[in-house]
Design brief:
five-stranded mixed sheet, alpha+beta
Length: 384
């Protein structure tokens, strides 16, 4: 089932695309900070309260830092609280900057805040639902207009108050609504693509069903040809059954029975681990006593499968050190993945960042603990 447009985010539907676009968003918020500093420093002569002006820049810097840290793929999903904090900091910065002008801020060009606030709202758009983007943008524009109105009254500006208010609110409102519209377009496009891809996958699955069944049957025939057929051939030639033949037959029977029971009881995640790391000691690599792996949805299975394969085929973690454990928790299940890092710090972070970004979206409560060389990744999901 597709996620409703009103609750979906661009990051949720396309985490890798959002990760690729993150440098542009970071450049926007850092550029907003640089623009704020440049305008402030260029108007030092007209600033009545330099302390307030410096505090304004501090709040803009805090907003940019919160955004950069909060959108990191190594951290949990960007939350609504962080959204409010990031935008709230720049609004506070604008208020402090306006207060620092005293009665000298009569020119409209002194109001750099609306552009910075609008840029921040636009940068956050890929990470939050569309109604929230609109609500926060509207609220920020109202506060921005109020600050501009107060400043115009204090400075006794020559321009009409309504013009000043509209001048201040317009960049915030247009950028917020523009970001929401762009996000909505991306969400709806992705959902249409996902619907078509799901239908095509179902058709392909129907076509491959018989092929898979024949492949499984061929695997069983191979086992029989390797062990059982030679034994029967020997018995047919000799015409008698010796005690040794009975022992061999019992061993083959037990081996085949154990293999079939193991494969039947093996979860999809255990199969992925076996195919990725090899069949030896898979029981030591993964611990799922409550069989909670079966409760994951299709997106969670796909993301975890890709991460397991990436770790198994990469050179970031020592293969023999990787362990995966699934335990019950109050909210459902908690997955803990541990391993020993054998590459450089920058190497494993950049290589695993896309997979961690996807895990952080499809699962909840992503937590990463790294104390060289030990790496621990935890995340949770709901169970029936």
């Amino acid at each position: 089932m597709s996620t409703p447009v009103d609750t979906a985010t661009v990051q949720q539907l396309d985490p890798l695309g959002t990760l690729d676009g993150r440098p542009a968003s970071i450049a926007a918020v850092v550029g907003a900070l640089a623009f704020s500093a440049m305008v402030t420093w260029s108007n030092l002569a007209t600033i009545a309260h330099p302390v307030l002006a410096n505090l304004a820049l501090v709040f803009i810097a805090l907003s940019a830092t919160t955004f950069v840290v909060g959108t990191s793929p190594l951290r949990p999903r960007f939350s609504g609280e962080l959204h409010a904090i990031v935008v709230g900091f720049v609004v506070i910065g604008f208020a402090l900057s306006s207060a620092s002008q005293g009665d000298a801020g009569a020119l409209l060009t002194d109001f750099w805040g609306p552009m910075v606030i609008g840029t921040t709202c636009l940068s956050v758009a890929p990470y939050r639902p569309i109604p929230e983007i609109v609500a926060v943008g509207v609220a920020a524009s109202i506060f921005t207009g109020f600050i501009a109105l107060v400043q115009s009254a204090v400075s006794d500006a020559a321009e009409p108050a309504m013009i000043i208010v509209l001048y201040a609110m317009t960049p915030v409102l247009t950028m917020s609504l523009g970001g929401a519209a762009f996000a909505r377009s991306l969400v709806k496009t992705h959902q249409r693509w996902e619907t078509r891809a799901r239908r095509a996958a179902l058709r392909q699955l129907d076509r491959e069903h018989d092929t898979v069944a024949r492949s499984v049957q061929q695997d069983r025939i191979t086992i029989l040809n390797r062990d059982i057929v030679p034994l029967f051939s020997e018995l047919a030639q000799r015409g008698i059954i010796s005690p040794e033949d009975r022992v061999r037959a019992a061993q083959y029977s037990e081996s085949i029975r154990s293999l079939m029971v193991t494969e039947v009881n093996r979860s999809w995640l255990e199969s992925v681990v076996v195919n990725s790391f090899g069949s030896l000691e898979y029981g030591e690599r993964i611990h799922d006593p409550h069989r909670l792996a079966a409760a994951m949805n299709a997106h969670q299975r796909t993301a975890l499968r890709a991460a397991v394969i990436a770790v198994a085929t990469g050179n970031e973690l020592a293969r023999e050190s990787v362990r995966l454990r699934i335990d019950k928790s109050r909210s459902g299940a908690t997955i803990t993945v541990t391993g020993r890092v054998i590459s450089t710090d920058s190497s494993w972070r950049s290589t695993l960042a896309p997979y961690l970004a996807v895990l952080g979206v499809v699962f909840s409560g992503l937590r990463i603990s790294y104390r060289s060389p030990s790496l621990t990744v935890r995340f949770t999901y709901d169970t029936p």
